[in-house]
Design goal:
By secondary structure, the chain is α/β, with parallel strands linked by helices. It has a domain at 101-370: Rossmann fold (3-Layer(aba) Sandwich), CATH 3.40.50.1820. It has twelve helices and 14 strands. The protein has helices spanning 3-7, 9-23, 42-46, 102-114, 122-133, 178-184, 202-224, 236-250, 270-276, 305-309, 364-378, 382-389, and strands spanning 51-54, 57-60, 140-145, 151-156, 160-165, 188-193, 196-201, 228-234, 256-262, 290-295, 313-314, 317-318, 326-332, 338-341. Helix 4 packs antiparallel against helix 11 (364-378), helix 6 crosses helix 7 and helix 7 crosses helix 8. The relative contact order is 0.15.
Length: 392
């Protein structure tokens, strides 16, 4: 079973039973854009056909009637109209969204977790990703790996180019254990972006810089070709995504339409945050298009080890790294479900322990699958949900 079904279909039936309970609570403020719905829904196409979930797939119930033509008195069947093209999962990714779409957030988290692969060369990695994504409506996938341990892919839809960076891993890498040295290099590095100086995490910057010429060439072509540029990643990949988006948006004039970080560590100081709050070439700031997802208790998002041992002390000041973007906090319920608290800001007092590296730090896709399901249930869009989680 692929990653998408493991995260989505296994949860579907359980979430349906939790929906009534979850929505019986006090309503929460949801500053979301209405998810984009295909003009030809499953319900319109299938008429009266009834479906049920069997072995992870929605199948017609035997004996149900469809929406085709009826027979006339002579027993002849009128010619059927050509069937419309099916709506594939990534047809629901909204390239023009401002970051408020829970459907987009689900897809970006899904792509971020998909980057964790056992492939040890870029060709196998790309083949693996293409086999998974092309049947879901993705137009193209171009994988990348380098000797600095930076891995990921450029995933294109009809109107979006999504750069996805993998997080820390020693499995399936051209440079085994390189990620751990990147994470540990917490020293503050002075850099200039868009004419302004700022301190950044040296390990994250150097990793992002090692692949940036490729990102610049690829994203310039996609941007000039009319696709909206999106950047995302999980963990270390989220930090690299932040610094890559920063340089594209402010140094290169390539407008980043959306940046989503999933379980990201801090990547730069207050001056970097201030730069992200300034307007780019498209008339908006990078911060205004940045969504930061954090699971309550995830140690990676609050780790302050460098502050303690002095690696980011630059005479005569301490350099403190900060987060960028609108923070949404995921809280795990006692019953195993999740609650999303929107626009919470960073919780500096959040408790965590090192065990969270294998717990809270890996809950993001499951949590966003739950949230998307509950939202689409609330908005009576189960047909959209089925289109998203069904893989041809």
């Amino acid at each position: 079973m692929n990653l998408k079904k493991a995260a989505s279909l296994a949860l579907f039936a359980a979430i349906l039973s939790l929906g009534q309970q979850a929505r019986a609570e006090a309503p929460r403020s949801r500053n979301r854009q209405q998810p984009r719905v295909s003009s030809t829904s499953v319900r319109d196409r299938l008429g009266d056909t009834r479906y049920r979930l069997v072995d992870g797939k929605f199948v017609p119930v035997s004996g149900s009637t469809g929406g085709g033509g009826s027979r006339d008195d002579g027993g002849s069947t009128p010619p059927e109209e050509p069937a419309p093209s099916p709506t594939l999962p990534f047809d629901h990714f909204d390239a023009d969204n401002d970051g408020s779409s829970i459907i987009n957030s689900y897809f970006l988290a899904y792509l971020s977790m998909l980057m964790y692969s056992g492939a040890t060369n870029v060709d196998d990695f790309e083949d693996e990703l293409r086999d998974e994504l092309l049947p879901q409506g993705v137009v193209d996938v171009r994988a990348f790996m380098n000797s600095s341990g930076v891995e990921g892919a450029i995933v294109t839809t009809s109107d979006a180019a999504i750069v996805v960076f993998r997080g820390t891993s020693s499995i399936g890498s051209e440079a085994q254990f390189a990620d751990y040295f990147t994470d540990a290099n917490h020293k503050a590095k002075l850099v200039n972006v868009g004419g302004d100086w700022m301190y950044v995490h040296e390990g994250f910057w150097d990793a992002a810089d090692s692949i940036f010429p490729v990102m610049l060439e690829e994203m310039a072509a996609e941007y000039l070709g009319g696709r909206e540029v999106w950047v995302t990643g999980h963990s270390l990949g989220a930090a690299i995504a932040t610094l890559t988006a920063l340089r594209l948006h402010y140094d290169e004039g390539i407008t980043v339409h959306g940046l989503q970080t999933v379980g990201s560590p801090r990547a730069g100081d207050a001056d970097m945050v201030a730069k992200c709050q300034s307007f780019g070439s498209a008339g908006w700031s990078l911060e205004s298009r940045t969504v930061r997802w954090v699971v309550d208790g995830d140690p990676v998002t609050t780790f302050f080890f460098g502050d303690i041992i002095g690696w980011n002390f630059v005479w005569p000041i301490w350099v403190y790294y900060e987060h960028v973007g609108t923070t949404h906090t995921i809280v795990r319920r006692e019953n195993g479900g999740y609650e999303v608290e929107y626009d919470t800001g960073e919780d500096l007092d959040m408790s965590w322990n090192i065990a969270g590296l294998n717990l809270q730090h890996m809950w993001y896709l499951e949590a966003l699958t739950c949230e998307m399901t509950l939202v689409l249930m609330e908005e009576d869009q189960l047909d959209v949900l089925k289109e998203i989680i069904e893989t041809p």
